[in-house]
Write a structure and sequence with these properties.
The chain has 130 residues and is mainly alpha-helical. The protein is built from six helices and no strands.
Protein backbone atom coordinates (compact mmCIF):
# COMPACT_ATOMS: atom_id res chain seq x y z
CA UNK A 1 0.00 0.00 0.00
CA UNK A 2 1.42 3.37 -0.99
CA UNK A 3 0.24 6.26 1.16
CA UNK A 4 0.39 9.92 0.41
CA UNK A 5 1.66 12.24 3.15
CA UNK A 6 -1.82 13.20 4.39
CA UNK A 7 -3.09 9.61 4.53
CA UNK A 8 -0.01 8.51 6.45
CA UNK A 9 -0.32 11.38 8.93
CA UNK A 10 -4.04 10.69 9.45
CA UNK A 11 -3.51 6.97 10.02
CA UNK A 12 -0.63 7.63 12.43
CA UNK A 13 -2.74 10.14 14.35
CA UNK A 14 -5.72 7.77 14.56
CA UNK A 15 -3.47 4.89 15.64
CA UNK A 16 -2.15 7.06 18.50
CA UNK A 17 -5.70 8.00 19.51
CA UNK A 18 -6.80 4.35 19.49
CA UNK A 19 -3.72 3.36 21.50
CA UNK A 20 -4.46 6.04 24.11
CA UNK A 21 -8.17 5.16 24.28
CA UNK A 22 -7.31 1.46 24.58
CA UNK A 23 -4.94 2.21 27.44
CA UNK A 24 -7.59 4.24 29.28
CA UNK A 25 -10.16 1.49 28.74
CA UNK A 26 -7.72 -1.13 30.08
CA UNK A 27 -7.14 0.93 33.25
CA UNK A 28 -10.88 1.23 33.84
CA UNK A 29 -11.39 -2.45 33.03
CA UNK A 30 -8.78 -3.48 35.61
CA UNK A 31 -10.38 -1.27 38.27
CA UNK A 32 -13.96 -2.27 37.48
CA UNK A 33 -13.49 -5.98 36.91
CA UNK A 34 -10.88 -7.32 39.36
CA UNK A 35 -13.32 -10.25 39.54
CA UNK A 36 -16.21 -11.21 37.25
CA UNK A 37 -19.04 -8.64 37.14
CA UNK A 38 -22.23 -10.37 38.25
CA UNK A 39 -25.95 -9.71 37.96
CA UNK A 40 -25.89 -8.88 41.66
CA UNK A 41 -23.19 -6.25 41.02
CA UNK A 42 -25.45 -4.70 38.38
CA UNK A 43 -28.42 -4.73 40.76
CA UNK A 44 -26.47 -2.87 43.45
CA UNK A 45 -25.09 -0.11 41.21
CA UNK A 46 -27.65 2.39 42.51
CA UNK A 47 -26.35 1.80 46.06
CA UNK A 48 -22.66 1.63 45.13
CA UNK A 49 -21.80 5.03 43.67
CA UNK A 50 -18.10 4.23 43.20
CA UNK A 51 -18.88 1.06 41.22
CA UNK A 52 -21.57 2.91 39.24
CA UNK A 53 -19.09 5.64 38.28
CA UNK A 54 -16.52 3.04 37.22
CA UNK A 55 -19.14 1.18 35.16
CA UNK A 56 -20.18 4.44 33.51
CA UNK A 57 -16.54 5.29 32.74
CA UNK A 58 -16.03 1.83 31.23
CA UNK A 59 -19.11 2.10 29.01
CA UNK A 60 -18.15 5.61 27.93
CA UNK A 61 -14.57 4.64 27.13
CA UNK A 62 -15.62 1.47 25.34
CA UNK A 63 -18.09 3.44 23.21
CA UNK A 64 -15.49 6.10 22.43
CA UNK A 65 -12.95 3.48 21.35
CA UNK A 66 -15.56 1.66 19.28
CA UNK A 67 -16.55 4.92 17.55
CA UNK A 68 -12.95 5.91 16.86
CA UNK A 69 -12.14 2.54 15.30
CA UNK A 70 -15.42 2.08 13.44
CA UNK A 71 -16.09 5.64 12.30
CA UNK A 72 -12.57 6.97 11.77
CA UNK A 73 -9.66 4.51 11.75
CA UNK A 74 -11.23 1.67 9.78
CA UNK A 75 -12.69 3.87 6.99
CA UNK A 76 -9.37 5.76 6.72
CA UNK A 77 -7.47 2.48 6.48
CA UNK A 78 -9.80 1.05 3.84
CA UNK A 79 -9.59 4.26 1.80
CA UNK A 80 -5.77 4.20 2.03
CA UNK A 81 -5.87 0.56 0.88
CA UNK A 82 -7.82 1.62 -2.20
CA UNK A 83 -11.15 0.24 -1.02
CA UNK A 84 -14.20 2.44 -0.68
CA UNK A 85 -15.48 2.56 2.91
CA UNK A 86 -19.02 1.32 3.33
CA UNK A 87 -21.45 0.82 6.19
CA UNK A 88 -19.74 0.32 9.56
CA UNK A 89 -20.77 -3.34 9.77
CA UNK A 90 -19.41 -4.00 6.27
CA UNK A 91 -16.17 -2.22 7.14
CA UNK A 92 -15.83 -4.38 10.26
CA UNK A 93 -16.34 -7.56 8.26
CA UNK A 94 -13.73 -6.46 5.72
CA UNK A 95 -11.31 -5.57 8.51
CA UNK A 96 -11.83 -8.97 10.10
CA UNK A 97 -11.42 -10.76 6.77
CA UNK A 98 -8.09 -8.95 6.29
CA UNK A 99 -7.00 -10.16 9.71
CA UNK A 100 -6.09 -6.91 11.42
CA UNK A 101 -9.20 -6.53 13.59
CA UNK A 102 -9.12 -10.10 14.86
CA UNK A 103 -5.50 -9.69 15.95
CA UNK A 104 -6.27 -6.42 17.72
CA UNK A 105 -9.18 -7.92 19.63
CA UNK A 106 -7.15 -10.94 20.73
CA UNK A 107 -4.09 -8.98 21.77
CA UNK A 108 -6.09 -6.44 23.78
CA UNK A 109 -8.42 -8.84 25.57
CA UNK A 110 -7.84 -9.91 29.16
CA UNK A 111 -7.51 -13.65 29.73
CA UNK A 112 -10.93 -14.89 30.72
CA UNK A 113 -12.75 -11.73 29.66
CA UNK A 114 -15.69 -11.81 27.30
CA UNK A 115 -14.68 -11.01 23.71
CA UNK A 116 -16.32 -7.76 22.49
CA UNK A 117 -18.18 -9.56 19.69
CA UNK A 118 -19.86 -11.79 22.28
CA UNK A 119 -21.10 -8.73 24.13
CA UNK A 120 -22.39 -6.86 21.07
CA UNK A 121 -23.85 -9.72 19.04
CA UNK A 122 -27.15 -10.00 20.99
CA UNK A 123 -27.58 -6.21 20.91
CA UNK A 124 -26.90 -5.75 17.21
CA UNK A 125 -28.56 -8.84 15.82
CA UNK A 126 -31.65 -9.16 17.99
CA UNK A 127 -33.83 -6.08 18.35
CA UNK A 128 -35.92 -7.96 20.92
CA UNK A 129 -33.18 -7.57 23.56
CA UNK A 130 -33.23 -3.77 23.68
Amino acid sequence: MTLDKNQKARLQFLARVVERESHHLQITDNRLFPRPFTVEDARTLSDNIEMAERAEAFVSRFGRLQDTIGDKLLPAYLKAAGEPPGLAVDNLHRGKSKGFLEASVKSGANPGSTPPNTVTRPLTHNGQNQ
